[in-house]
Amino acid sequence: MKMTREQRYRRIEQAEPGEIGKLEALISACPWRQHYHIQPITGLLNDPNGFSYYQEYYHLFYQWFPLGTEHGMKYWYHTRSTDLVHWEEVGIGIQPGDTYDSHGAYSGSAIEKDGQLNLLYTGNTRDEDWIRHSYQCLAIMDESGSITKVHQPVISEVPSGYTEHFRDPKVWQQGDTYYCVIGAQRVDETGCTVLYRSSDLRNWTFLGEIHTGLPNFGYMWECPDYMEMQGKGVLIFSPQGIESQGDEYQNIFQSGYLIGEPLDLQTRHFEHGSFQELDRGFDFYAPQTMQAPDGRRILVGWMGLPDLEYPTDKSGWAHCLTIPRQLSLREGKLIQQPVSEMVKLRGNSEGTHMEFTLDHENRSFADFAGMAYELECEIRDLDAGVVGIELRASAEEKTVLQYDRLSQKVILDRSQSGATLAEQNGNVRHCTLNADVLKFHIFVDSSSVEIFVNDGEEVFTSRIFPSKDSTEIRFFAHGGKAGFQASKWDY
Ligand code: FRU
């Protein structure tokens, strides 16, 4: 049953007696709880926030509505890790409900200054007429881990020319100066990103819009993130309101990037190539990056999308975060690879390895199966027309990953993956890949797959909701032969 607005905008302490216990009981009986992904303890998780490294820990917060699976009163929930793969649940990071975040502590980012971690976030408020007012707020985490809000917002006005859809500050430092990008909507209801500057993180100067070659690209740009890598500037954002076009923009909302010359901070001109989607799967949105102490640029995304119902809603929780990915640039494209620390999750560290040829057939192997594992598969000597793998398979269910040599497309089909969702947006996703050898690096969990294709050239991230018994892995080559090499590690 849908919650009323009043129910959605409650804080934890306003829960009915027994309400949270009921959610917890539903959740503990849910077959789709993940094994190694960050997921909400109760209720709904959305964007990753405040992804940073401070005091020997990676910190990763997420947008959280504790009391249900709809979007309501948002908190920041705090997790931390020393290795990017084992995450500890710390507890509430930012609690909403004060004057400037009365209706939610919305997305934002973190940066260390003077030995403290500064959390810059959007305070979402609604007035008596339910009109939105946005503030950019600051909270400070000290060495002991305690987080205190700064009482006054650090940006309290939306500049003229923009609507109250003005949120998600992402901060970075260049020399002695701090900059932040904010996702915005112009009064003509087109999306864009604006830029601010500060010398102390408290007083911010509005510099103006980032001038891109996309003046009319959707009605709102959420969660912008700007970084420089390998001498280039990269602007990641999540535009809303883009029509699907061939294989592109198939999900309800998109997430992608522009690569160009480093942003000119004086003129705010950004010379860039075309918008490219970050992920080809069904469930990916609002990613955020951070720079690790060793210089790697690491991205985590929300493995979900707004405005859709998911099969776990009935079990009192929704969504999870993706595994962390290391970014690099190759030939005008962002390459995404699982972070090397993922090997720490390998239970049987030697793994199981196989080499075989398939000729017009499907094949599975005893004990080469599972529900939470890492699978590497290389397919070469392609003579077959279609080759691929069925994951989480049984007599009734399968999630099919395949390469069609004729159309040169990688295809992910979740039409038979188990419980269905968002079918209005289709059950199949494709992308073009021109390759003689295919490499699939796959991370399967109870209710998700993350598939890295040809060393991170493409990624397909998707939730799937199979039954617990669907654990087979089947390889296939149709219309000819192909050579397979597969390795699997249990998680
Ligand atoms: C993106 C988003 C952000 C906002 C947050 C609220 O998913 O809509 O723009 O800050 O979620 O939870």
Automatic annotation (TrEMBL):
GO terms for cellular component: cytoplasm. Its main location: cytoplasm. Its EC number is 3.2.1.26. Pfam families: Glyco_hydro_32C, Glyco_hydro_32N. It is found in: Cytoplasm. Residues 341-485 form the Glycosyl hydrolase family 32 C-terminal domain. Pathway: Glycan biosynthesis; sucrose metabolism. The keyword Hydrolase applies. SUPFAM superfamilies: Arabinanase/levansucrase/invertase, Concanavalin A-like lectins/glucanases. Residues 37-338 form the Glycosyl hydrolase family 32 N-terminal domain. One of its GO terms (biological process) is sucrose metabolic process. GO terms for molecular function: beta-fructofuranosidase activity. It catalyses: Hydrolysis of terminal non-reducing beta-D-fructofuranoside residues in beta-D-fructofuranosides. Keywords: Carbohydrate metabolism, Cytoplasm, Glycosidase, Hydrolase. InterPro entries: ConA-like_dom_sf, GH32_Enzymes, Glyco_hydro_32, Glyco_hydro_32_AS, Glyco_hydro_32_C, Glyco_hydro_32_N, Glyco_hydro_beta-prop_sf, Suc6P_hydrolase. It is an enzyme of class 3 (hydrolase). Belongs to the glycosyl hydrolase 32 family. Enables the bacterium to metabolize sucrose as a sole carbon source. NCBIfam families: scrB_fam. This is Sucrose-6-phosphate hydrolase.
